[in-house]
Amino acid sequence: MKNKILFFVSVLYFFNSYSQELPPIVKYNSSVYNAGNQNWMISQDKNHYIYFANNEGLLEFNGSSWNLYKSPNETIVRSVKVIGNRIYTGCYMEFGYWSRQNDGTLKYTSLSNKIKTKILVDEQFWNIINYDQWVIFQSLNRIYIYDTKSNKFKIIVPESNIFKSFKTSNSIYYQTVNYGLFEIENGKNKLLVSNSLLKDKKIVNVFASDEGLIIHTQFNGFYKLSNGNLLKLSTEADSDIAASSVYSSQMMSDGSFAVGTISNGVFILTKEGKVKYHITQSKGLSNNTALSLEEDFDKNLWIGLDNGINCINLQSPIKSYSDDTGMLGTVYASILHKGKLFIGTNQGLFYKEYPNGGEFKFINGTKGQVWSLFSYDGTLFCGHDSGTYVVENDTSKLIYSKSGTWKFEQVPNNKNAILQGNYYGISVLEKVNNQWIFKNKIDGFDYSSKYFEITSNNQVFVSHEYKGIFRFQLDSKLTKGVNLFAYSQPKKGKNASITKFNNSIYYASKDGIFKLNAKTNQFQKDASLSTIFENEEYTSGKLILDNSNKLWLFSKSYINYFTLNKLSSDLKKNAISIPSSLTNSMLGYENITQLSNSVYLIGTTDGYYTININDLGFRNHSVSITNISINKHNEKLTSFSILEPGEFKYDENNVTFSYTVPEFNKYINAEYQYLLEGFQEEWSEWSSKSTINFKNLPPGNYTFKVRSKVANSQPENAAVYSFTIKKPWYLTNFALIFYFLLICLLAYYINKAYEKYYFKQKQKLIEENNLLLEIKELENEQQLMKLRNEQLSQDVDAKSRELAVSTMSLIKKDELLSLIKEDLKKTSEEPSSRSILSVITNINKSISDDNSWNVFKEAFDTADKDFLKKVKQAHPSLTPNDLRLCAYLRLNLSSKEIAPLLNISVRSVEIKRYRLRKKMDLPHETGLVEYILSL
């Protein structure tokens, strides 16, 4: 019990202290802008760029990118002031100005170098003021007045150290220690106030009013100086400011005041002195120490903090309630009921009076997760993880506790019955004796019913995230569901939902938005509505219907709502350019509640924000190109002039464009669309990305165009930049002419070479033909020689045959003569044989071996020249008889045929042949006749 009391006390303290809806705060920490933590002074130029005097140097923010320029002596920049086209800065023993170069970067020019000898040691310049043609640099010791026309300096040396200098519309003031407030006139100091009230009080700022001066002090608040009289001005924040120590202040364009403190954040006071906002670190500020304040052209308040930079969108149509402590939690539902704003979160149910109520109060008994809030017939129902509550003022009553409750729907034609979607189906609440009670659970359907709708004929449609869409018929007694049907199309989807809009059932999922055809009871895709989920815009299909019959959907880059079109049946689409990354809503549990005709409340994970859709008109900002850089492959980027047409080398064809619209609203992003003529034919899709890189562009002429829009505004202008990527030297006109001449020359020489080649080929062909003819002739001659050789061979063969015939004839003749001789010898024994003996003698002469051999030899040499010489040379040991045998064997005569020629027996011929082999020393495998024939 004690713990519960402590919890309620802490909740009450929390909401008494922190329940204030504040304008959006854009936070930039040092890791975002990559510079020092502390920011001492802020200024803005005509292009709406913001400049900060930062610990690390001059910090520039153009709405899209941050650029840091180191101070010339790398010391802390204490002051910055934009005057005309120059950005003046002051730091340690140095002051000067920065000017914009053609490539968009800033270049520093020192002014203090001209009077370097006159600057004191350790002197730092804490403030810069412009007045007509003069620029005033203020240190803690002296004031340096620089004449921009004559480039001359004048130095004012007060009698004591300077606290701070100030400027009103017509005058320049400064305060010194122990002396009071001085005014500079004609280049000299004039004591304006020496009142004892101000001598020991540090002045933070001085403002001009219709009745005199308003002097703001560090601890004692505001004073009015009129006709030499000093009067105290009281505000609602005097006690808080007195305990906080004011460090900076600013009069806003509407006459209100912004007060920055050392330890208590920033106060926004109306010109009547009432506290409009008190913004501290616990309410969204990055730090409680506000070192500098500046109102920009769009009436945003910039705060240079001790640790970071914040921008408060004071004129934003969006106001946020941020719960950085987690006491409130994530908002899942909200509703305006009987003059009270109820907020349902994961911590329970809270309420406050609306619109003038101060703090949220916790409703006892509702600790835990709240899913929905539903107002019907004067009763507020709360769908809770514990069941269903009926809420009356600051009390709650649990009327159903069997399972958690998702949502509620009235039963058509029955004002005393309500359907509620539970964790395990759908149940009925009934009004009895003016009290709502649980009646029954509907039989036949037990699935979780997070989203459901009921038609006029009691058909119930349920969207289940993991099972898809179901339909069943509810009986007249509201007790049973029949004819259960599960749709196969459209398919189930993550964060899908179903709702009834304009008497039609709509279902939204990642596949698009579908409308129920009442005749077929089938869902058909609505092409027009589904366009909001194109280009990967889908994050959630949660459909929300407000009291003015607007259908709301949340996508990746927009908050969309549809209204009925007065001139057609098509729905009118409206888009608010607030991305889901900024809304910080729970995906699938987005919620929006109409608080008034144009003001809506949207729940987030750390509170909520309200938006006035009638004030969403934003002035059109001009887009400008901030940087053009190119690089070769694997080399660093090099910046080029953004004021003159570019001309880049052929290998400098990776071109990066940076562009911006100086829009500093937290929830409204600028979007860009670009076109590169010469490379693209159509404009790109709208995107919040402020840089684009074109890689490997071919040589040619290009014109880059970029335009922008803020929220639903129309593009005001298009920034244009033309450039040329030159051809490589080997593709220039001169090179092409050279190539043409070279080609002509090459063609000439190639033609000559071909002529020479073909001439050589012709000669070669002629030579080849002649050679072929010669070869042919040689072949013919060879053929002829072959024929001649054949003829000779035939002649030799004929001669050999003749020789053999002659030899045989001789043999026959000798045989015949021998026979005759023998016969004659027989008869020679007779007396009358003298004549016979004479005949025998002649016969012996005729058959003389020598004569026969000589004849044979002569004939053989004629037929086979030099054979006997070759045999004799090869075998010198051969005898004439051996040579004679070789000759007979050369004639291929058999032993039988040789025997008569040698006048020996066949046996003797074989012996001779054997001996001849021995003399010739022939191997056993070599035949004698074959050897002799081969010689």
**Structural Rg:** 61 Å
- What profile does the largest beta sheet have? 4 strands, antiparallel
| Helical residue percent band | 10-25%
How many strands?
64
Class computed from helices, strands and strand pairing: alpha+beta
Number of helices: 14
Shape: elongated
Indicate the proportion of strand residues.
35-45%
Side-by-side strand order of the widest sheet: 1-28-27-26
Low-confidence stretches: 1-18
Cα(first) to Cα(last) distance is 143 Å
**Mean pLDDT across all amino acids:** 87
Descriptive overview:
It is a single chain. The relative contact order is 0.05. The protein has 14 helices and 64 strands. A hairpin with a 3-residue loop joins strand 15 and strand 16. The N terminus is likely disordered. It is of the alpha+beta class and 935 residues long. Helix 7 packs antiparallel against helix 8, helix 7 packs antiparallel against helix 9 and helix 12 packs across helix 13. The longest helix has 95 residues. Strands 1-28-27-26 form a four-stranded antiparallel beta sheet. The protein has a four-stranded antiparallel beta sheet with strand order 2-3-4-5, with no helix packed on it. The chain has a four-stranded antiparallel beta sheet with strand order 6-7-8-9, with no helix packed on it. 22% of the residues lie in helices and 38% in strands.
Gist of the model:
The chain is α+β, with helices and mostly antiparallel strands and 935 residues long.
